[in-house]
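Bug #77: duplicate submission created two jobs. Keeping one. Sequence:
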Amino acid sequence: MIGLGFSLLENFFFGLTLVGVPGGLLVVVARGIITSFMHLLAGGIIGYYFGLAKFKSHSQAPKKQKSWLMIHGLVLAILFHGLYDLVIRFNYAWLMIPLAAFLIGVYVYIVIGLRRIQTSFHNHTL
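Kept job's structure:
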């Protein structure tokens, strides 16, 4: 939810810079959809790895392993966001379709991971 809130503010302030620009409203709407989805996924990545670390706290996992899981999630989210920014900022239009496929792939990865955690939690095998 934090990622979506940040995305909302980011898009609002970005929209203020486009007041009076022809086509500015279309850009704001497109950004509102695409960047909100990207921030949702980046937050999902972080939440997934923080959740893994949290559930490992019930096991005998060493504290170092839990910290590594959280750092891993943050680094993946930062790299993911950076890749997205690279494509958008430099207007690499030819990368839009691979970027969309990548966003969908990250979504599928998160859903599969959450189902694995849920199954493991119910089976107590995490």
